[in-house]
Every structure is written in C-alpha cells, then in structure tokens.
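2024-03-11 09:14:02 DEBUG pipeline.ingest accepted 1 chain
2024-03-11 09:14:02 DEBUG pipeline.ingest length=224
2024-03-11 09:14:03 DEBUG pipeline.predict start
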Amino acid sequence: MSIRGTVFAITYDRMMKRAEKTGLATMRGALLANAAGHVLEIGGGTGANLAHYGSPVESLTVTEPEVPMLRRLERRVCDGRPETVVLRAPAEDLPFEDATFDVVVSTLVLCGVDDQPRALREIRRVLRPGGRFLFLEHVRSTDPQLARRQDRLNWLNWLVVCCECNRPTLDTIRYAGFTVAAVDEISLPNAPFFVRPAIIGTATAPSVHQVAPRTHGGPVATGP
C-alpha cells in the first residue's frame, strides 16, 4: 500500500466535492438511470455512484483495485447499500465468468487503468451478448490545440490525480468490439481546462458472445 495511494483516497471526496455539486453528480445520475438487471461497476473508488442506482438494478457488484479506496467504498456500502458485493480486482483482470452481467459501468476510471485496451476486452468478456457498457470518461480533446496542451500537461495530471487526460478512449471502446449506441461530448465541471474534455454514453457488446484475444494493443494517444 503506497503513501501516495493512501493520501489520494483520503483526499478524493474533498477534491471532487465541488465538481459533484456543480454538475458531475447530475451527469452520474443521468447515466446510471440506464442501469438495470445484473450490474458491475469497475473502479468504484469511494462509492460516488452508489446513490444513483435505482430499483431496476437487481444486483450490484463493484470492483476496486486500490486498498485505501476499497476501505472507503466498503464503509459507504455498509452505510447505504449493504446488499452490494464489493471485490478487490483490477479492471484488466476481472474475476467473473464470461457473459455474467447485463450492464458494466465505468466513470472516470479508464483514464487511470494500466492497460486500457485490456480493461475494455475484460468488460466485453463479462457482458452478456447485447449487454450495455455505460461510461463517463476523460478523453483526448478533438481540438488539436487543446490536445497538444493535454499532452504537455499529462505528466502533472498523472502525478496529482493518477490519471491520463489525453487517452483516445472512445476509439479504444470501438476497437474492443463495442458498438457505440449514444455518446455526447461534455465538459467536466470545476476541472482544470486540460481535463475538462469528456464523453458520456452507452455502448453495446456484440450480440453473439465472442471473447477478444488477450493481447496488448489498440489506439494510443499521440504526443505533440
């Protein structure tokens, strides 16, 4: 357990408080209104999404790889949603059988995973055929000038909040075999200019279950 990880977990809710109040919580609610059936959330962090899951959700499983975050997540689950299953697991190696879930949720997670293409292949693997992937993620800007500034400042973002703000996440979702059903470009509230570009949307897994090979690769961000 790293000191950096512990400090990040302790300060995360405080850091995000203003963003949540000025629009991020509303975005979460709009996205998760589409969650139903057997749902998996990856990288649950401190549990910011828990309050937004409604009655159509029959079962909720949340994974989180970092122990300091996991402890805070477990406390929030006990206080507000005790029927939730919480497991320690990285997005790149999910401990579930193929085609287990109706919906997988990822909010502000794919910017921080070690291997984004592999994580998306795992999400696709655990979704049932035709299952839905709900996402709200930082992305590389479509404005070339801003994208170059993201490249220059990406090291700082990684150092401070453990995420890369310039990943071409939507391309990687498509590359993993998903069909993007709906996507909106949004601006994250109360965030530094270089991490504001984001997307919110829904993608669908193939209607016939085919597990993508576990190989590295996929779109990568280009430097300046």
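2024-03-11 09:14:41 DEBUG pipeline.report The chain has one domain: 3-204.
2024-03-11 09:14:41 DEBUG pipeline.predict end
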